[in-house]
Amino acid sequence: MNTRFLETFLWAARLSSFSAAAERLHTTQASVSNRIAALERELGVTLFTRDVRCVNLTQAGRLALQHAEKIVNLTGEFRQMVSSREALRGTVRIGAADTIVYAWLPLLIRRMNEHYPGVSLDLTIDTSLKISQRIQNGEVDLGFIMGPVMAPGIYSAALCTFESCWVGATDLPLPESGLTIEDIAHFPLLTFSTGSQPHQALRSMLDAHGLSDSRIYNSNSLSIMTRLVAAGVGVGALPRVLVEDIIRAGEARILDISPAVPSLTFHSVYQDRGDNAVARAIADMATEIVAESVNEWMVGAA
To answer: Which segments constitute the HTH lysR-type domain (predicted)?
Structure first.
């Protein structure tokens, strides 16, 4: 029996709401509904009566609640015991998108070294799409990527949201403010790799303004994108954290362009199994770091 399903059942029962339980667990209402339905199928009973505004426990649900609380409490104690710095050993395979590297990943790794000296790190930096696939294939234990990842057996929780911006070289011949996307359509537009969420959002924005013929330059190396921006190759549609260095160096500036570039939300993603205590512990550590490190380029914890 999946203990995460039991935890979901507990929160739904306590809050009398699937949507409130989803908010508390940092997931979607559909995910909560699916977990409860799976638990009901496994137990062969109906746990809740459902209406538009709330959910209520059935007689079987009230009986199950007593036992579920005991199981979840014991599971929590067990996780705490095996997740101590003395107990965690081995290698954790972490995959992260470039944006996380520029933000708080070094702080996470430094804290890992302090708290889990018995854990070695195998780090992969790649696109969110590729890391998502590697997590599902069992090749990566924990990912910090643009999500969510909606796949069977995968836990995906919103972690942080980064402000994005239009950015161009300081000497790019554009006014300081009052620009529209039509004003920059003749420049190459620099963004994430083809097929990524930011690329798709930019393409949709251009299509909506009748600018389907505009050039988009893509790369899975965002450090290359920032250098191309600084060199005046085109206008970037990038997370602000990626371009802070070239802005401080006077090589680039934020451009006031309408519409704005959408913010990007990143998730902690791992296989929802009972034998991945290291991934769970480090995901929890990342959540703590995000709460501590919100600043001018991060919209906030998601």
So the answer is: 1-58
**SS3 label, residue 285:** helix
Strand 142-146 to 90-96 pairing: parallel
Identity of residue 134? R
In eight-state DSSP terms, residue 262 is P
Residue 29: left (phi > 0), alpha (psi -120 to 50), or beta? alpha
CA atoms within 13 A of residue 158's CA, in its CB half-sphere? 16
Domains of the chain in start order, with CATH, are 3-82 (1.10.10.10), 90-162+264-300 (3.40.190.10), 164-258 (3.40.190.10)
Kindly give the parts of the chain with pLDDT less than 50: 296, 300-302
Q: From CA 142, how far away is CA 155, in angstroms rounded? A: 10
- What is the pLDDT, as a whole number, of residue 296? 45
72 sits in the region (left: phi over 0; alpha: psi -120 to 50; else beta) called alpha
- Give 206-254 pLDDT, tens digit per residue: 999 999 999 999 998 888 999 999 999 999 999 999 999 999 999 999 9
**Residue 251, CA distances (Å) to 150, 170, 243 in order:** 40, 6, 10
pLDDT, one tens digit per residue, over 126-140 is: 999 999 999 999 999
Distance (Å, whole) CA 89 – CA 209: 53
Q: What is the pLDDT of residue 186?
A: 93
* 135/78 Cα distance (integer angstroms): 25
The closest alpha carbon to 126, from 114, 143, 111, belongs to 143
C-alpha–C-alpha distance, residues 104 and 289, integer Å: 7
